[in-house]
Amino acid sequence: EMIALSREEMGHFKMVHERILARGKTLGRYRKDEYVIALQKFFPKGGSRTEQLVHRLLYAALIEARSCERFRLLSEQLKDRDLAEFYRSLMVSEAGHYTLFLKFARKYGQREAVDAKWKALLEYEATIVSDLGKKETIHG
Ligand SMILES: [Fe+2]
Predict the structure, then answer these.
(1) Which residues lie below 8 Å from residue 60, measured CB to CB, with a gap of 6+?
(2) Cα(53) to centroid of ligand 1, in Å?
(3) Could you say which of 49, 61, 63, 95 has the lowest number of CB atoms within 10 Å?
(4) Boundaries of domain holding 125
(5) When comparing pLDDT for 131 and 42, which is higher?
């Protein structure tokens, strides 16, 4: 399932890149995602490999969930129907990714503990997004 997800993500990257080129633009440099950097400070370092895996899966699930929300907003608000439909398809994929990461976190961690970590992560996230401003980013 992770291989399929990786392939899908790279397919999306290719589609986005082609759209950038079609507009006569070039792919910009990688930019640090302040939201992701801040988010990944929440769970303590160390612990068992399984615990670290669960934490990474929860970070990934939340990042995908927020991407899904942003793509939904873009797909609903854009007047460019082709671009709106493209974002809608990305939204559907991101919803699948978000639920897949959460499913794996619950598979490898203990259900109640994972759900408590998820709830705590959401509460922490609420505190960091309020500090991130309104830049043109997908997250934050
Ligand atoms: Fe994704």
Answers:
(1) 97, 101
(2) 18
(3) 49
(4) 32-129
(5) 42
Band (53; pLDDT cuts 50, 70, 90): very high
Distance 102 CA to ligand 1 centre (A): 13
How many structural domains compose the chain? Answer: 2
The CA 95 to ligand 1 mean position distance, Å, reads: 8
Note whether 17 and 37 are same-domain residues: no
- According to the model, what pLDDT value does residue 51 have? 96
Residue in the structure block whose two tokens are 């608000």: 77
pLDDT of residue 26: 96
Distance 93 CA to ligand 1 centre (A): 6
Please check whether residue 70 lies inside any domain of the structure. yes
135: left (phi over 0), alpha (psi -120 to 50) or beta: beta
| Cα 58 to averaged position of ligand 1 atoms, centre (Å) | 13
Domain identity same for 20 and 36: no
Q: How many helices (H) and strands (E) does the chain have?
A: 5, 0
Distance from the alpha carbon of residue 66 to the mean position of ligand 1, in angstroms: 10
Task: Using the mean position of ligand 1's atoms as its centre, give its distance from the Cα of residue 64 in Å.
Answer: 5
Ligand 1 centroid distance, CA of 6 (Å)? 8
- In a domain? residue 6: yes
pTM: 0.92
Mean pLDDT confidence for 4-10: 96
Residue 43: the pLDDT is: 97
Are 18 and 77 contained in the same domain?
Answer: no
Whole-number Å distance between alpha carbons of 34 and 21 = 26
